[in-house]
Design brief:
Order of helices and strands: HHHEEHEHEEEHEHEHEHEEHH
Shape: globular
Mean pLDDT: 82
Low-confidence stretches: 1-9
Helix content: 25-40%
């Protein structure tokens, strides 16, 4: 069907620009349609209208996706500036005297969200009854610049200069195994013994790769038998706790409730925990309250396993101040001695 040329001076509508941006990021019409929740034909129609308005093709289609033309790259740069201006407008509108009510979206790695933040939300919500928390637990980092979340807690430090980045603490990890696994297979006496054991790994973008963990450990085998790969932390934790094999867990895993034991002779690893948000978000009362709560929830003075210095799990009960260590994870299963 022949496209009708737009009248001179006609401005592109924001919805078509947004479809173009998402299409470029998704890489294909089908992926963009799925993300937008519309049909592939609707995406094509929006792009066709935009091309008619611009007067030039913005992309070419290939078997493996789309490629931007020179005109498409020029439009992409301008469209990105429009998107940022739109987000700035939204953030400015939220900075009102009534902004202590409403919703705050927190993106967090699945393990920290499920085992650490979610149990602490009750106290925060009681203090802020007019606020709704949308806790999004996933192993992929959210883009707070594009308002995928108001706040993001992640294990990789963002590099954008437009973000406010706060170090919340550090998570320390050790190899763990279930007591049932120890009774059945024993524990490795040295790294070389791992070739005779079953290994469970977590496969996602914000986890430690086995090669990173083993790089500085003398005697760590070049190849070890991996029994199970899991992409989310909760399933990973329970697989280890049920005896599926040896895997890396945070040092506070001993307190969550399962009968797991740390293995001391296989090295240790640490990752910094980062809170990121747009600087304008601090002017929104409900977001600022949430930031303060998150920083308190990771306060290493109260929760010493988040300190920069490593503390062995057996020493944690003696250094935790305030509530007894088992009470911090009440609601899972009882801590066993």
């Amino acid at each position: 069907m022949e496209q009708i040329a737009a009248a001179p001076g006609t401005m592109p509508d924001w919805q078509s620009i947004r479809v173009f941006l998402i299409l470029e990021r998704a890489g294909s019409f089908r992926s963009a349609a799925a993300e937008l929740g519309i049909s592939v034909n609707s995406v094509r129609r929006r792009i066709g209208d935009l091309e008619a308005l611009i007067g030039a093709p913005l992309l070419t289609r290939h078997v493996d996706g789309i490629r931007l033309t020179a005109e498409g790259h020029a439009i992409l740069e301008a469209a990105s500036r429009m998107e940022e201006a739109a987000f700035t407008l939204l953030r400015a509108g939220e900075a009102s005297p009534f902004s202590e009510a409403g919703e705050v979206r927190i993106a967090v790695t699945e393990g920290l969200g499920a085992f650490w933040l979610a149990p602490r939300l009750v106290e925060f919500q009681r203090a802020n009854p007019r606020l709704t928390v949308d806790l999004r637990c996933a192993m992929e980092s959210a883009d707070v610049l594009r308002l995928e979340a108001d706040l993001a807690i992640q294990l990789t430090r963002p590099t954008s200069p437009d973000l406010r980045v706060v170090k919340l603490g550090r998570i320390h990890l050790l190899p763990y195994a279930a007591r049932d696994y120890e009774e059945t297979y024993g524990l490795p006496a040295a790294p070389e013994d791992l070739t005779r054991h079953r290994i469970v790994v977590q496969a996602s973008s914000q986890t430690i790769r086995l090669e990173d963990y083993s790089r500085d450990i003398p005697g760590f085998p070049a190849s070890i038998p991996i029994a199970l790969k899991i992409n989310v932390s909760s399933a990973y934790y329970w697989a280890i706790a049920k005896g599926a094999g040896i895997g890396l867990l945070p040092t506070y895993a001993s307190a969550i409730g399962a009968r797991v034991v740390p293995i001391d002779n296989l090295g240790r690893y640490s990752l910094d925990i980062w809170l990121t948000y747009h600087p304008d978000a601090e002017r929104i009362e409900r977001v600022r309250r949430t930031i303060d709560w998150i920083r308190a929830a990771f306060d290493p003075r109260r929760y010493p396993w988040f300190q920069d210095a490593f503390i062995h799990p057996r020493d944690l009960p003696t250094v935790v101040k305030g509530a007894p260590l088992p009470d911090l994870f009440a609601g899972f299963t009882a801590m066993t001695p």
